[in-house]
Design a protein that fits this description.
Elements lengths: L1 H6 L1 H5 L9 H21 L3 H8 L12 H18 L3 H24 L8 H9 L9 H8 L7 H11 L13 H5 L1 H4 L2
């Protein structure tokens, strides 16, 4: 929430479309929309895309063509429209300004080994609702998978398959590929 407050400046606080008495509601809507969007990605089976985005792949938080970011943005826009009663254009303007900056800082903190304030395990625990997600070495998995300099679904399937006791051969396994392999962890 502190990151949302820090990045809200002109987009929320100085925005004439958002009355001053609704600034806090607007910031909370952005935060709830971000967390809801991250949760939808994780629980919807896009753990690979979410982890890849956190790690800065697919253009990271700044790439609005990234499906993960698109889903989060849609969630934030919906949250702002629902709570504030603003138009889609106003909500989209706020989301387009605040969300990439907040997530860029958030993901940087999560991947910075010298910053203990946020970690990938904590994010995954929060968005999956599963306590055991906090104890997974997500950074180790991603580092191993990124041996070729990029994190793609084949890498995640190979590493996650080995991690979860699968074949690790990079092939989708019965039960839905990566989503199936991590199904026990995420309750799918």
């Amino acid at each position: 929430m502190n990151l949302v407050r820090q990045q809200s400046g002109d987009a929320i606080i100085n925005n004439p479309a958002v009355p001053n008495e609704q600034n806090e509601t607007a910031m909370q809507s952005v935060m709830d929309g971000i967390m809801g969007g991250l949760t939808q990605q994780a629980q919807g089976g896009n753990v690979g895309g979410l982890l890849s985005t956190i790690m800065g792949q697919q253009g990271g938080a700044g790439n609005m063509k990234n499906p993960v970011m698109g889903g989060i943005m849609n969630n934030v826009v919906g949250s702002l429209m629902g709570r504030l009663g603003v138009s889609q254009g106003v909500a989209g303007g706020i989301a387009g300004t605040v969300v990439p900056m907040v997530l860029e800082k958030f993901f940087n903190k999560a991947t910075d080994p010298t910053d203990p304030s946020v970690d990938v395990g904590g994010i995954m625990k929060q968005v999956t609702g599963k306590e055991e997600a906090a104890s997974v070495d997500w950074m180790g998995i991603a580092s191993t998978a990124m041996a070729d300099g990029k994190l793609d679904m084949g890498d995640l399937m190979r590493v996650a398959g080995g991690f979860m006791g699968g074949s690790g051969g990079g092939q989708q396994q019965q039960g839905g590929g990566l989503g199936g392999m991590l199904g026990g962890l995420f309750g799918k």
